[in-house]
């Protein structure tokens, strides 16, 4: 079954809603340039409230390696997600240092982007239209990726089932699609999960 990741978690109240829905992953934006940014310390406080069946993901965007390494070595994050221009050396070194899986994000505009994703040494790749744009890209480009991937970009409760049925991604990753007025909406979170799983929760 396709897994679910809710990203951009910022509040303890959202953690409580996550525990009711139980997505597979919960993402925390640890790069200050983005409005969903949360400090690692605040993220850890929220993680302590999460059901242990939910894997916390640390999201970095061109972060200094020592910062990402320090965060991952806290032991609170089960995966690193890299959304910048991190190269193979960065990806491999962080995985070796932290002992955690990693995911590298790719902004998909052309078949060349899919080729780069296919060759990436990360454990998983994330295919998106950009860095948190909330816009859908051309899903027709995905057919040649040939590996497990996270699908992001423009997903919402209304199109999640379609995406899963058409593409069978390893995981669907959503942030703005489960928000109302920039706040995570528990009702949308529930509807999204039900759409992906094809059943009421």
What does this structure look like?
The chain is an alpha/beta fold. The protein has a single domain (3-197), classed as Aldolase class I (TIM Barrel, Alpha-Beta Barrel). Helix content is 33%, strand content 21%. It contains seven helices and ten strands. The strands form two sheets. Strands 1-2-3-4-5-6-7-8 form an eight-stranded parallel β-barrel, surrounded by six helices. The protein has a two-stranded antiparallel sheet with strand order 9-10. Helix 1 runs parallel beside helix 7 (186-197) and helix 3 (65-72) runs parallel beside helix 4 (88-98). It is globular, with a radius of gyration of 16 Å.
Keywords:
201 residues; alpha/beta; TIM Barrel; eight-stranded parallel beta barrel; two-stranded antiparallel ribbon; 33% helix; 21% strand
Strand line-up across the major sheet = 1-2-3-4-5-6-7-8
Structural class: alpha/beta
How much helicity do the residues have?
25-40%
The largest β sheet comes out as:
8 strands, parallel, barrel
Weakly predicted, low-confidence segments:
none
CATH topology-level name = TIM Barrel
Overall strand count = 10
Radius of gyration: 16 Å
Order of secondary-structure elements: EHEHEHEHEHEEHEEEH
N/C terminus separation: 15 Å
CATH superfamily: Aldolase class I
pLDDT average, as an integer? 94
* CATH hierarchy, class: Alpha Beta
Which CATH architecture? Alpha-Beta Barrel
Principal-axes geometry comes out as globular
Q: Number of helical segments?
A: 7
What proportion strand?
15-25%
Number of domains: 1
